[in-house]
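Long-time lurker. I teach an intro course on protein structure, and each term I like to show students one example going from raw sequence to a predicted 3D structure in token notation. This year I'd like something fresh instead of my usual example. Would anyone be willing to generate the tokens for the chain below so I can use it in lecture? Attribution to the forum is fine with me.
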Amino acid sequence: MSQPTEAQRPETMPPEAISELSFEAALKRLEEIVRKLESGEASLDESITLYAEGDRLKQQCEARLQAAQARIDKIQLGRDGSPTGTTAFDAE
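-- Reply from a regular --
Happy to contribute to a lecture. Here you go:
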């Protein structure tokens, strides 16, 4: 079995570059990967490489969302409806 040529190799991002992406940029790249995988235009080797990159991007997006959620405060209101303070946001 021959190795893919440079033109056949998928253009993927190294893990260190993924960690530098903003949430929006990582999500956009993840959407591009999903479209390419769903279209069936990628070879098996390219699909495996893209899937691995997509997994790293998903982890990056989840980490960014968790960090954002940790910074969100919920405003507490008193009986009269006026703000009385804040508590940590609880998504559940």
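Some talking points for your students: Confidence is low (pLDDT under 50) at residues 1-9. Residues 44-71 form the longest helix (28 residues).
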